[in-house]
Each structure stands twice: as C-alpha cells, then as structure tokens.
C-alpha cells in the first residue's frame, strides 16, 4: 500500500504568492534563511505525516462533508521562531472560521492515528526556513487580505534537493453571503 506525506492547507492565490515573494526579497537579508518557493507558500491547517492510502481516503471523505462558510484572512503579522528556524507571516487576529476549520481537521486526523502537535495552532505562512540566527523583522504596517473560499489536501515529496507540494483534492468553503 502506498504511503504519502500529506497535509491539509489553504492555498494562496498566485498573484499573492508573487507579492509576498517580492516583499520578502525587499525586507529580508539574503542570508536570513532559505526562501520557500512562491508556489509552495501555503497556510497549513493540519499536518498528517506519512499516511496510508486507506487513511487518506477516510480523511478525504470526512473533509468532503465539512460545511463551513469561507472567511477573510488578514495577513498583517510576521514573526520568527528561532528553534525550528521559521520566519512566518500570519494574522494578528485569526478569523474564527480558520480556527474552526483547522480544529476540525486536526481532530479528525488525530482520530485516524495522525499524531497532532501539542502546541496550540498558530496559523502562519512559512516564508523562510533554516532561519536559526537572529532575523530583523520588517516593521508592522504591511497588510494583505484575501477571501478564503476553499481548502485542500496536499502531498509533499522531497527529491533532488527540492520540496514539491501537489494538490490532491480541494473542497469549497461557500461564501457566507450565499452569493
Ligand atoms: O506551514 P509550515 O510550512 O509550517 O513545517 C511543515 C509545513 O508547515 C509541516 O507541514 C507543512 C507541510 O510540510 N510539518 C512537517 N513535518 C511536521 C511535523 N512532524 C510538520 N508539522 C508538524 N509535525
């Protein structure tokens, strides 16, 4: 049976990925860390780890039954976690819909044997990895907003020194206005 490394995440619109890459290049020193490729910028909802095809199917079925409205995400916060070496972008106030969605997916994953971190969920988009030295963060005042209208399951593979994410499935989060 094939095993895949999987995670649920929010995709970012391609234009936003490009804007963030530009902003990152403008505001972080070259040696600050290893930049995540534009196409790989995402917001993880639940990391599943290495799972069987059967577990993947079960979790996809549960994901397809989630009925939840979309939400708006304000990216207006950034930070540095020196221990994992991550520089991230996030929100000063996470929308309730985001927290609910992540909480549900994480609970379903845990019930299917995918161990979840004991750390509280801190929604973030990883901009740089291997950032273990002190990093100068840009002053507050930046702000991107986008409407989240779906979430997705991704596989992660690493080969020839590159991480590749592939979207396996996507589920809608309908507009809350019903439009
Ligand atoms: O959103 P980010 O980039 O922080 O760090 C990995 C990435 O999250 C995380 O899953 C996302 C897709 O790879 N990840 C990798 N291994 C992990 C683990 N053992 C993990 N998250 C929790 N536990």
Automatic annotation (TrEMBL):
The Phosphoesterase HXTX domain covers 10-88
Checking Pfam families in the record gives: LigT_PEase
Per the Swiss-Prot or TrEMBL annotation, the motif HXTX 1 is positioned at 42-45
What are the alphabetically sorted keywords of the record?
Hydrolase
Active-site residues, as the UniProt record annotates them: 42, 124
EC class: hydrolase
Q: Which InterPro entries match?
A: Cyclic_Pdiesterase, Phosphoesterase_HXTX, RNA_CPDase
Q: Where is this motif: HXTX 2?
A: 124-127
- What EC number(s) does the entry state? 3.1.4.58
Catalytic activity entry: a 3'-end 2',3'-cyclophospho-ribonucleotide-RNA + H2O = a 3'-end 2'-phospho-ribonucleotide-RNA + H(+)
Q: Which family does it belong to?
A: Belongs to the 2H phosphoesterase superfamily. ThpR family.
Described purpose of this protein according to its UniProt entry: Hydrolyzes RNA 2',3'-cyclic phosphodiester to an RNA 2'-phosphomonoester.
Name of the protein described by the UniProt record = RNA 2',3'-cyclic phosphodiesterase
């Amino acid at each position: 049976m094939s095993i895949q490394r999987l995670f649920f995440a929010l995709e970012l619109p391609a234009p936003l990925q490009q804007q963030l890459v530009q902003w990152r290049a403008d505001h972080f020193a070259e040696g600050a860390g290893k930049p995540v490729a534009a196409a790989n910028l995402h917001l993880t909802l639940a990391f599943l780890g290495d799972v069987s095809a059967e577990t993947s199917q079960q979790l996809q079925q549960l994901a397809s039954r989630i009925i939840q409205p979309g939400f708006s995400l304000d990216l207006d916060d950034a930070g540095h976690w020196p221990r994992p070496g991550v520089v991230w972008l996030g929100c000063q106030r996470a929308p309730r819909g985001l927290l609910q969605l992540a909480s549900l997916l994480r609970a379903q994953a845990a019930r299917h044997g995918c161990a979840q971190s004991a750390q509280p969920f801190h929604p973030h988009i990883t901009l740089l990895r291997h950032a273990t030295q002190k990093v100068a963060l840009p002053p507050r005042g930046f702000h991107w907003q986008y409407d989240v209208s779906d979430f997705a399951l991704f596989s992660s593979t690493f080969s020839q020194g590159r991480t590749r994410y592939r979207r396996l499935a996507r589920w809608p989060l309908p507009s809350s206005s019903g439009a």
